[in-house]
Amino acid sequence: MTKSLQTPVFGRLALIGIGLIGSSIARVARARNLAGHIAIYSRSAETIARAGELQLGDSYSTDPAEAARDADCIIICVPVGASTQIARAIAPHLKPGAIVSDVGSVKRAVIEQIQPHLPDNVHFIPAHPVAGTEKSGPDAGFETLFDNRWCILTPLPETDQQAIETLSRFWSACGANMEQMDADHHDLVLAITSHLPHLIAYNIVGTANDLETVTQSEVMKYSAGGFRDFTRLAASDPTMWRDVCLHNKDALLEMLARFSEDLSALQRAIRWSKGDELFDLFTHTRGIRRAIIDAGQEVDLPDFGRQAGKPGSDEKRDALK
Amino acid sequence: MTKSLQTPVFGRLALIGIGLIGSSIARVARARNLAGHIAIYSRSAETIARAGELQLGDSYSTDPAEAARDADCIIICVPVGASTQIARAIAPHLKPGAIVSDVGSVKRAVIEQIQPHLPDNVHFIPAHPVAGTEKSGPDAGFETLFDNRWCILTPLPETDQQAIETLSRFWSACGANMEQMDADHHDLVLAITSHLPHLIAYNIVGTANDLETVTQSEVMKYSAGGFRDFTRLAASDPTMWRDVCLHNKDALLEMLARFSEDLSALQRAIRWSKGDELFDLFTHTRGIRRAIIDAGQEVDLPDFGRQAGKPGSDEKRDALK
Lengths: 321, 321
Description:
- 2 copies of one chain form a homodimer.
- Helix content of chain A is 47%, strand content 12%.
- The first copy, chain A, folds into 2 domains: 172 residues, Rossmann fold, CATH 3.40.50; 88 residues, 6-phosphogluconate dehydrogenase C-terminal fold, CATH 1.10.3660.
- The two termini of chain A are 19 Å apart.
- A 6-stranded parallel β-sheet of chain A has the order 3-2-1-4-5-6. In chain A, strands 7-8-9 form a 3-stranded mixed β-sheet, covered by helices on one side.
- The first copy, chain A, is elongated.
- By secondary structure, the first copy, chain A, is of the alpha/beta class.
- Chains A and B meet through α7, α8, α9, α10 and α11 of A and α7, α8, α9, α10 and α11 of B.
């Protein structure tokens, strides 16, 4: 985590959208002095009013062009399906030399939506900070969201190196580790590490909801047996995830096909009581969590440290200190 | 949570198996004075030595008959596939009037394995405390594991009411809420709230592990996008979960079939860009998490309160206090 009280990375930073990600950027940029002026846009008057109450920025607008005008860096933080509309609205008002970036969970489709509308004299650098919670809206963000998470840039081949370095400096100061890759590879990697998990979570929660033989009340009461874990991802923002599904279709269908194939094999192993096959799979997967913890991407506490939230669990709560 | 320093519920309590559940029972029984003497069995000399070092009980043995002899209550805490063997070993040594119970995640198969071997003069009451973490072994248990979790009894019709009440009193003092149901219904309910979630988690982690196009290192680095949630359940004890799959086959295959059917519909919605269908499902599932939190079965913190485990997140850590 870098705290900087030196010169801001950007004179004027425009955040186009002020949900979980946008409002987290606003908070960390303010706390670590990364922008001289933070201009905030939301299409909703209610949201923009709330952003003002929370003092997330220096100026507020429901017109994206107004927020983007004169900005040194514009970060588009809206569901990916709204990218074209935003690009069209801000394009005529961009300052020459400005950096235009985004935070979308898919990158090829975002490039196709944004790039054609931008003038040649700005630097377009697609980005994706791999961080979040199941909450959404301007109240959901927090300063440390990006600490030790990875931020992936998928610049186009012709992109100015200096602009890439400036944007990297900004995200590093937000706490993120930086990586660069091709947009198509990004979409494949995220299909397995993020998009398929969300889809599976939504699906199992839907399945549980549709049973005739088990009541809703029973599903709630006994969810601590494992089910409740899935409800977190399945509580994520519906608009965002609809757009991800629609805009990373090929990679997601490929991962879905593999998942289903593996699940059929597992189903067969159960039907034919192949205990050794089950045991081998169940043993193999154990090491992967350990590796994720060692990679600094997961807390090293049983049950996500969740026991700390239970009343009376002083002992476990102390473990967090 | 009930703390009692009055008369213990049982004079002698035998714990047959001292893993996560057995050692949690030992800890809460000791802390809340629920048993005069705690006798502990493990088939492994190493585990029994560790239980001794942790001072989990009053006597230790690698012979189940020795631990069960003279006990007022015997709780079998081994993987469900080992139930027959334990029942056979302890049956000739049981004190008349003793309560024999278990903690298995399936109930019909456990009844079939245990009941035929027991003498008529003991009370057999199958039980399932729906609580746990992904950790296993005698070090993994803790006193508050059962606080505000549900413990399901599936007594047979002829079971002595007094014995049921005594066992309920014990589990209530351990912190659990009590419920009774038929063994077959239990197995159906747990198939959706616990067994299917574990199976799906094991499966997706296996799928991610087998990709040629995405490296292991990439899966780790970007797992915070959602994947890491599944690795927790997929790190659970392989023997326990192999046995659950083999002993709740019918209910699990039924739930798997429904899950796969729903997933195919979802896949089709993605392929044909049916955004409204996706949005409807993703919206509907959101309320279910809220209901689980309201039912006291989940922490009311974003990201399971997991941000508290991140270095430097003082703000979120304070939220746990």
